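>> Question from a student workshop board

For tomorrow's exercise we were told to take the sequence and the ligand below, predict the bound structure, and bring the output to class. My setup keeps failing. Could a helper post the expected result so I can at least see what it should look like? The ligand is flavin-adenine dinucleotide.
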Amino acid sequence: MPKRRTKRGDERTPVSGSRDVVVCGASFAGLTVARQLAGSGARVLVLDRYEIGERQTSACGIPTEWLRVMALEASARQEFSELIVHTPRGTSRYELPWTFSTFDYRQLCELLWDQCDAEFETAKIEGRDGETVRTDRGDVSAPLIVDALGWRRILASDGGYQPPDAPLSRGLEVHPGGSSDDLEIWIDRRYVPAGYSWCFPASDEQRIGVGSFDPRFHVKDTTVLLADDLERPPVRYQGNWIPHKLRPGTEDGIFFVGDSAGQCLPLTAEGIRTAFYFGIRLGEELRAVLDGRQDREAALRNYAQFIDVHEWKFRWMLRAQRLLPRLPARIQRGVIRAAGRKRFIDWAFGHYLRIASPEFALEHLPARAERRAHHGRLEREIAA
Ligand SMILES: Cc1cc2nc3c(=O)[nH]c(=O)nc-3n(C[C@H](O)[C@H](O)[C@H](O)COP(=O)(O)OP(=O)(O)OC[C@H]3O[C@@H](n4cnc5c(N)ncnc54)[C@H](O)[C@@H]3O)c2cc1C
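>> Workshop helper replied:
Here is what the output should look like for this input. Compare the format with yours to find the bug.
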């Protein structure tokens, strides 16, 4: 596996030449695209300014089934079958129809990278001229370029997104040590007027944070307040902007995926499984180009159409995100109470999971994994 550590000083030889595919960004979305291209024989270069798995910017919570279907279970830290919701008027405990897990970011990224056969270089991406990506280590060209660089959307022709005017939420967390059995969220204006707060335990640490749908609301003080309320020290900060509105998945011949395409779900700010989901589909489109089954224009068209099919679901979640904080506290409480009925929970969480269903990953295994599964089946048949 061609793995490299962050290059410093004289080691930083220029990145140059051309490749078949350049994937910019080596987190959830970028690594998933690269994984789908494994075994294609194409020259795939993955770029990131940090080492793979070096910079966690998320509470790293995901429906457990997604870890299983992506062969990433080894990174799981804790599994939950209940969600506890706190409001100023009381606490409700919801039994989930599927379990949710927290995972270790570095380990998950390394496991994903193990499924790739691409080349990796650390380089800061500065922009793009046509089919050439400009980095602090030189320029590299490719007919197929993927922007998986997160919310900034750096390779966009208009130079990307800037807060606070862009449609972005903001999230901040602290990661004190300590354990807990409970997956908890707070819908409480004391912490954030529009948004929610959380405590996601991950075995020996807790990820305590606040997310605000309003980018102008500064979440630092209330993140500290929540940590204080939970009697945990506010240590090991991490935060980021979170795009809460779907953006075009293609532009000027470039493919965008994950947060760069605004694929994080509005209302819940869950963006990991959607980065996997859309990354799988994008990888398939690129693979069809590399195998000569379609040209780049068709891949751009097909990927954009695939995203379009999901647009109304994102639009409705964004409407709910805007509406819920405006409801009077009394009605908010009623909604939360009504939402606690078991039948409603099963229905709502079932629909919610199907927006980016883990079954999709099984139906669209990367060609290498498919071959492995096929061989496994043959071996079992022969042995029988
Ligand atoms: C505090 C917080 C908690 C969250 N918790 C959850 C959660 O529990 N569950 C969930 O599903 N979602 C969560 N999210 C959202 C989730 O983190 C994102 O939706 C997800 O990370 C998107 O993945 P991505 O691969 O598109 O982008 P990112 O994970 O942002 O990755 C972008 C990559 O690009 C690299 N990069 C950026 N700029 C450059 C550059 N100029 N040059 C080179 N490389 C660059 C970065 O180093 C990074 O590796 C959370 C977000 C925040 C802020």
